[in-house]
Amino acid sequence: MGTVMTIHDETHDFQGFLIVSAALTGYDSAELQGTGCAKEYWHQFRQVLPKEILTEFLSFAPALGKKHEDKIIRQSYLSDRCLGPVSRSLIQLWYTGQWVPFPQEWRENYGASRFDVVKIISTRAYKEGLVWDAIGAHPQGAKQQGFGAWSLEPPKQRGAGE
Amino acid sequence: MTSKEEKLRKTRKKLCELLQDALMLELTTIPPYATACYSILEQGQYDRSEPTIVNAEPIEVIRQVMVEEMLHMVLVANVLNAIGGKPELNNPDLLPTYPGTLLKGRGPTVHLRRFCPEQIKSFRLIETAPKDTGPAKKGDYRTIGGFYTFIMLKLEEACDVFGDDKIFTGDAKRQISNDDYFGAGGEVIEVIGTSTQRRDAAMAAIRKIMEEGEGADMGDRAGDKDIIPGPEGREDVAHYFKFNEILHSRYYHPDDSVNEPPTGGDLIVDWSAVSPMQDDPCESNYEKAPELAALSAEFNEAWTGLLDGLHIAFNKDKSALRALVPNMYNIKFLAQKLMRIPLPDGSGETAGPTWTYLVKK
In this structure, what CATH number is given to the domain that contains residue B16? Predict the structure, then answer.
């Protein structure tokens, strides 16, 4: 019974992680899972954050995707002394596949983690960074677009004109 | 119209229909092969710091088959254009859907499935040579090889009855050459020249398709006489044997007998390093997941663009072929993306591409 609860809670937390990530990055949760990196980012995220901060970070998830999403993102995440740097590292993680460590001030206030070091999470993480899609390019050295792609117009920006 | 002219008209129409069916037949095999190929996880599951490509060898084996199917499409289109037909690539009434049967119900059923032994066995079945071409020559074909045997027979018959010049009436400008084609899977055969030369070229094109496919009439050898480009200059084997290599985790030696298992070097296969894609993905699975439906639509737009582009290349402007290369890469990346996204039903299976042609409204 206890095991079942843990699995359920973890799934729930992972879903929350995806919801918050979607709100912060501007990519929906299917797109985020389409990178194939969601599980390893979630692993990294849990490793660097103390449990209570992780809980707080995920606590706004149910309110996202609704009317006040923008306000929540600005006030509860980006402007928050604790969650702000966490959010920024997470955004950079999704966009570049790289974990960017928290500022020194954050560590002094909330504790340091031995996992909070700069690193590319995996070879796939580099290839699947959202930045490449966002700028209509491909990662250097991977996912080549094929012969003649340079003569084509860049793909239309998602959401352009909406 | 005299009765002979009427007979010629009917014969030409029948030949065009057969070759159009052949074109769709080649096309039908590509989505299942591509889906299985793209479901293989390239990397990221065992390695963190040391990149290795898991299943690099089966990926390459399937890819080689796939690009040869593309070449076969070009060859069939050349023959069809040579006899004055119009290759149709974007007619939704003719395009394949999955699961579906080959040869209008006479051949095996094909599914869209992830890379797994059952699927590779079904690929092997698709590429199986007919034991006896006797029934096929009478029109009772059940295999791809049997079907082409029948087409060759009908084409020869028509040429003998009406004369090569009455059959090969197509516009030479429509012939795809090696300059137009990207060179994947081998050399294109152009059906050009005098009507006799065209007849010979058409027969050579169809024979090439048969040899590369199920390896019929190869004199008990697995090799198909094509040399795989590369430092070793290894002789290629027919598709049937390529799929058998994956199932046996062992490469063929070109001189291996077709009736014996392969005896060449090791081919490493890891059946577990595969996306758990649902069998035969369909749009109805995405009805309750609008984000997935959007990605599926994006994939189908790319697929539709590819088919429309091929139609233009075969009927109007050959140079359209080149511009399709980036499109094909896009299809691959979108398919891989879909296959990483779990379905909302909690089954643990992932979404996958449906390969649906989107009809313009």
Answer: 1.20.1260.10
Task: Look at residue B304 and tell me if it is in a domain.
Answer: no
DSSP secondary structure, B264-288, as one string: SSB----TTSB--BPSS--GGGGTT
Query: Which amino acid is present at B243?
Result: F
**E strand map for chain A:** 98-99, 119-120
| Domain-embedded: residue B320 | no
Candidates B294, B329, B336; nearest CB to A144: B329
Distance in Å, alpha carbon of B82 to nearest chain A alpha carbon: 28
Contact assignment for A149 to B326 by CB distance below 8 Å: yes
Give dist(CA B11, CA A119) in Å, integer.
68
Instruction: Report yes or no on A96 lying in a domain.
Output: yes
Find residue B223's DSSP bridge partners. B237
pLDDT tens digits in sequence order for chain B, 361 residues long: 688 899 999 999 999 999 999 999 999 999 999 999 999 987 644 444 454 567 888 898 899 889 999 999 999 999 999 999 999 999 999 999 999 999 999 999 999 999 999 999 999 999 888 777 788 888 889 889 899 999 999 999 999 999 999 999 999 999 999 888 876 677 899 999 999 999 999 999 999 998 887 655 555 566 666 665 554 556 778 888 889 999 999 988 878 887 888 998 888 888 988 999 999 999 999 998 999 999 999 999 999 999 999 999 999 999 899 889 999 999 999 999 999 999 988 899 999 999 999 998 7
Provide the whole-model pTM.
0.90
Judging contacts by C-beta atoms under 8 Å, the chain A residues touching residue B291 are 28-31
- Domain extent, residue B212, equals 3-276
